[in-house]
Here is the input.
Amino acid sequence: MILKLTMLIVFFAVMVAIGFYCRKHATDVNSFVLGGRSVGPWLTAFAYGTSYFSAVIFVGYAGQFGWKYGIASTWIGIGNALLGSMLAWVVLGRRTRIMTQHLNSATMPEFFGRRFHSDGLKIGASVIVFIFLIPYTASLYNGLSRLFGMAFNIDYTACIIIMAVLTGIYVIAGGYMATAINDFLQGIVMLFGIVTVIAAVLNSNGGFLEALNRLASVSDETVSAQPGVFASFFGPDPVNLLGVVILTSLGTWGLPQMVQKFYAIKSEKAIKKGTIISTLFAIIVSGGCYFLGGFGRLYSDSVDIASQGYDAIIPAMVSNLPSILIGLVVILVLSASMSTLSSLVMASSSTLTIDFLKDHIIKDMNEKKQLLTIRILIVVFIAISVVIAIVQYKGNVTFIAQLMGVSWGALAGAFLAPFLYGLYWKKTTTVSAWVSFIFGAGFMVCNMLFRSSFPAMLQSPINAGAFSMLAGLVIVPVVSLFTPKLERTFVDAAFSCYERKTEVTVKRDLGE
Here is the structure.
């Protein structure tokens, strides 16, 4: 217990110390929200990865989908690495960095407002962010209760409050730069932790081949009559597995807290390096989490899914490991949660301040007032997320749990298509962006409220979220063809940033 507590105290102390160290980098809105757009590849890539993967994935999704799909759940991690990380960086990275700086936008709603010349669009996007990002923030605490209960016998409420307060301290003190540096350190913990835990769990089951043989002997007639299905290449349900891959991978393209990482990249060289680093990070962390979860059915004697739920699977897998490894697992999950929490509250508070309060509610909001408001809202949003998480846990309020589940699909379904087309296609219209907003958010809310009326395939919020994102990619270009175009001179001015000439050395371009 002393060893585990010492590890925890050192971890928290370092996080807070970095926050205060970075105060000098958080003197104005640009530096507080975007780190002065001068963040290098390692910090940006780790900030992207740690914001991507939270305790929801390590404890919840890894346990749930590992149980459902067996070792085939590793495909989710591979999809996260290739589609959610590598391709996102290649397609969005440099264009996002160039156009957002050209339009002087610091948030995703501000980008929509300036790219489509619509103040209403900016306000609409900020409202969607506020409604759906807060419950998503609250969901980060899921899974922590069982791990802390197992390792420290600490009440879930105390665990949530401690984590929230310490995260708030370093974010408020140091802004984006503090979160980026802490994300880097937390990312190292996650990398080392997941590799170590996988090795320990497999070793406790006689090694990889023995564990795989044991998994092949597991059968569940309610899932599939095929023998060895949980150790097979595509698992018992490849169609629904594909839905999970699409939602958890393509979804990052439309999430404000993820896309905002591209705003802060320092240079072209940083984008190329960041792409490689982010992809490798995702392969190890996400691929490792789902790979580990794939062996969850080997612990069916220790877990009663009906009464304990999927969140009990991963804690059961690590409960018999040595104390130092249990301490490492707790810090791993804390790292994942705190990094994502800091990213979410930063996105929420900056969006509400810059896109909603400034000029609309509070007139003549100078730099100092904006910075103070963002910091106050960070406290407010963290407090709201804590209250939601505690109420949901204590009262088991179904509505809150469902809202958490649809948040990712609603945000990505609303924003992905207009953001992507807005970066690449001059003919994207304001109306098409509005239609995407309404369809993406509305479809997921309807799925939550009237789930039984949906087709069987779309009753799952995961499949519904994947559908809303893919539908948006069709809706935006189709609606754009039949709705009024933006003024040509305005669009050309927005896209002129891509035409600006820049000199490079011969090793980059042979020339004529």
In short: The CA atoms of residues 296 and 366 lie 54 Å apart. The chain has one domain: 2-411. The chain has a mean pLDDT of 85. The longest helix spans residues 156-204.
